[in-house]
Amino acid sequence: MGVCLATCKGPRVGFWWAVRCAQHLAKYAVAVQDLARRFLRLIAEGLGFDNHDFFEGDLSGRETLMNVNYYPRCPNPSLTMGIRPHSDGHLLTILSQGDVSGLQAKHRGRWIRVQPIHNAFVIGLQMEIVTNGLLPSVEHRAVTNSAMARMSVASLIRPKMDCRIGSAPTMLNEETNPPKYKDYTCSEFTEAYEAAAGNRETVLDFFKIHHTQNRACVNEHALISGLLKELFVCSLCRPPNNDCQNVYAC
Questions:
Q1: Phi, psi of 138 (to 5 degrees)
Q2: Engineering a disulfide at 183: which of 126, 166, 197, 200 sits with its beta carbon 3.0 to 4.6 angstroms away?
Q3: Closest by alpha carbon to 168, among 180, 176, 157?
Q4: Interior CA angle at 250 toward 136 and 86, to 5°?
Q5: What are the two backbone dihedrals, phi and then psi, of residue 104, each rounded to the nearest 5 degrees?
């Protein structure tokens, strides 16, 4: 994995902030790449892949892009949005969001506040396709608050643009779990992702294979995937009685 210079978003912090912090960011980027490799090996092992280096090479070999996002304190958060709703379009995100809450995940049609978790990671859409839907991506967004500024650092682990991607053979069974998505190149995926403005359902539908199935048949794989998504979202968020009621007030 290579490193791409950080992208800084925020008023008057971009250029000079990057210059002053360049050395620290470079060291952080190397550490994040090592962490990502370990995560991907553990994911491959957990999925039962014989090759624990399955994600090495072109599938994660594009330069790691680091986004540094700065959200200033906003007197009226209802008037602005930090980052619009989207699902990440790459393989994996290593996210550091500091100690200030601002990330929200969509769960059963509701936006739920995600409490800051050190060394958290986010599943991207292409990981969902590689695992044939077993590890689903989560739609999320960032909101501002009136109390204090917030900064997050998102390191994006991405396939090379000419990498051909499809569901891993280990995840497939023609009778019980046929492939849900057609193969594609990363450049084709990027084009579809940008056209859909990062909307999860629109992007996945573009690559989805529509199988003729007996509607009475319960797909065990889909049930497991749903449970994993429930556990993933609930493990990040507050208890149900603290769910965000006003999505712009978090």
A1: -120, 130
A2: 166
A3: 180
A4: 30
A5: -130, 145
The total of other beta-carbon atoms located within 10 Å of residue 67's CB is 17
- Separation of alpha carbons 60 and 2, rounded Å: 10
Amino acid at the residue 81:
M
| Token pair listed for 48 | 């039962």
Please report, for the chain, how many H helices and E strands are present, in that order: 5, 11
User: Rounded to whole angstroms, how far apart are CA atoms 193 and 200?
Assistant: 9
pTM (2 d.p.)? 0.76
Q: What is the 3-state secondary structure (H, E, C) of 169-195?
A: HHHCECCCECCCECCEEHHHHHHHHHH
- How many other C-beta atoms are found inside a 10 Å radius of the C-beta of residue 217? 8
